[in-house]
Amino acid sequence: MSNEIYKIKMDVFEGPMDLLIHLIRKAEVDIYDIPIALITSKFLSYIDWMKKMNIDFAGDFLVMAATLTQIKSKMLLPVHEGDEDEDPRMEIIRPLDEYLHMKSVAEQLYQRNLLGQDTFIRKSDNKDFLPHDGDEIIQVGLFDLIDAFQKILDKIPAEHKIDLTSDRISVQDRISEIVNILEEQGSVIFTEIFSDNCTKNEIIVTFLAILEMIKLSLIQAVQHIQTGIIRIFYL
Amino acid sequence: MDNIKNIIESLLFVSDKPLKIEQIKIVLEEAETKEIRNALSEMMEEYDTRKSSFYLSEVANGFQLRTRPEYKKWISRLIQPSPFRMSSAAMETLAIIAYRQPIIRADIEHIRGVDSGGIIRNLMEKKLVRVLGRKDIPGRPLIYSTTKHFLELFNLKNLKDLPSVKEIAELKDLANIEDPTE
Prior knowledge:
The complex is a heterodimer of chains A (235) and B (182). Chain A has 235 residues and is of the alpha+beta class. Chain A is 49% helix and 7% strand. Chain B folds into 2 domains: 4-77, Arc Repressor Mutant, subunit A, CATH 1.10.10; 88-178, Arc Repressor Mutant, subunit A. Chain B has a 3-stranded antiparallel beta sheet with strand order 3-5-4. In chain B, strands 1-2 form a two-stranded antiparallel sheet. The termini of chain B are far apart. At the A-B interface, helix 1, helix 4 and helix 6 of A face strand 2, helix 4, helix 5, helix 6 and strand 4 of B.
């Protein structure tokens, strides 16, 4: 079988918005004055085509088809004088307009002088900027972190009770706080993240936040070989 | 101080991150903030008049020496940077987050009309987007914003430096004239 027979040119659309824009452009109409009947029927036939081609498509396409059909039927209703209802098409024009805006913004961003493509900076290994030049550091493993955590737990006064009624800080909020500290300072000593008189709960949340951030590779934990001080770096 | 510009230049030379005025101020205790600011803007002009290979870029709320785009051809031969790969879907999502931040995923998807979870995760891996916290509405959805790295990558001074809606509209008109269909 010759390949030529099966030459299919297919535009793949990211979602129903993309398809809608494609149809509008192809019909050479103004997005502020969409011939809704035409576009709706084209949209529906595209969905049919996708079904026939056995292309999986998400329910998003059906939602859009339903919206278009609804607008189409609204357009058929007679408009009485004095009615101040806006053009039913606005329901689709507004999101389309915003989407097109974002598409052009994206293009413009892409054309900026990108760091590492168009413009370059002096690259230096992060290590050069660590405190105490020349000192050796090692990557900290999970257990070193747990040991350090244990030390902090040991520091809390024994009589400290966990207050279950008070507002508790979430791991997510804590991550955000730590990011703020790191954006400001770039790096922070592990123990400094824990304030001196924080509750056990706060300490645990902070520790979980750090583990989560390492997992997301937002930060890197390194330990000084002699002093054993663990430092957190913002990547 | 006579040599303030040289001092600042040396700091800029060794720093691999955009240098903030406050950071320069910590080093140059004896200098006024205004003095530092003036020195920086004079330096900017000097690099421009001199047409040197690098320029002083105001980026991510700081200052950084960057090479001029004219020389990218040769620099790329030397260091062979990995090509910048971003799908148009990823760029769109990033633009939406940049312009509408802080924003939750549902709002991003409302604009794009399509599931964006994977793309957002990808942008987070690229460190262009971060989680700011959770929104106090049912489901406590995550709130997203762009990072400092985003500003650095796209050569932006700060978020206000993003092209304004008016500029975008002009650009769009232009695009419509040049390319009415496809």
